[in-house]
Design brief:
By secondary structure, the chain is mainly alpha-helical. The protein has a domain at about 125-200. The protein is about 55% helix and about 10% strand. The chain has a 3-stranded parallel β-sheet, with helices on one face. Strand 1 (about 40-45), helix 2 (about 70-80) and strand 2 form a beta-alpha-beta unit. Helix 2 (about 70-80) crosses helix 4 and helix 3 runs antiparallel to helix 4.
């Protein structure tokens, strides 16, 4: 058995001209040229089985090849922590008894399906989070109104000067901030993490996969 399986053929990116192969159009050739000029971001993984790429099996916790997160979780974490540049190359090391012909193509296809499901899930969660922000305005707006009322009428309650005036003024603005902070954070900022992860998943689904034996197990 060879120590390195061939990298699977690149998946189609965009539409080509009628009847032409994927990437045959000007846009496809330009994208391929740009990607070819960039060095790939290599992610190296050492797994006990191909399934560990997607789910953790109940195995020996003290094995030197044991991971405590799935290979996909590790890949997503690595790509999120790096600037988004260049293609992605995943290098998997497996025990010799786990190697099969065409293993890299099988992993690549499963990776593509996983990314499709995860992207759809993130899109639903992003919409759900924004709906949470909209519904939270039912509580936030009354708090904001109460805060503004304290700021406006503080002078008629405790006078225009003094510590009591300062307390009511500061308390009113705090209520305004509390009433707006969670709805605005939920509407504007929390959904950004889902969009960022989806961009990582789009890169991951186009990654090339190489499978080889563990270095210590090579013949």
């Amino acid at each position: 058995m060879s120590s390195l399986y061939p990298t699977p053929a690149a998946r189609p990116r965009g539409r080509s001209g009628a009847g032409g192969p994927p990437g045959a159009g000007p846009a496809g050739r330009l994208e391929q040229g740009v990607m070819a000029d960039r060095a790939p971001q290599v992610i190296s993984l050492s797994l006990t089985s191909p399934e560990d790429m997607f789910v953790l099996a109940q195995t020996d916790l003290f094995s030197e090849y044991r991971n405590f997160m799935t290979g996909l979780e590790y890949c997503i974490s690595v790509l999120r922590s790096r600037p988004p540049r260049g293609p992605v190359r995943i290098e998997l090391s497996l025990p010799s008894d786990q190697l099969q012909e065409g293993m890299n193509q099988r992993i690549a296809r499963t990776l593509d399906r996983y990314c499709d499901h995860r992207i759809a899930y993130n899109q639903r969660e992003r919409r759900a989070v924004r709906l949470d922000g909209v519904f939270s305005l039912w509580i936030g707006i009354p708090i904001v109104v109460l805060g503004f009322l304290l700021v406006i009428v503080k002078g008629s309650i405790v006078g225009s000067t003094g510590n009591a005036n300062l307390v009511l003024d500061s308390g009113g603005w705090v209520l305004v901030w509390v009433g707006l902070w969670f709805p605005l954070d939920t509407l504007l900022f929390t959904p950004l993490s889902y969009g960022r992860e989806n961009r990582v998943l789009e890169r991951l689904r186009r990654a090339s996969v190489v499978v080889e034996p563990h270095p210590t197990m090579k013949p």
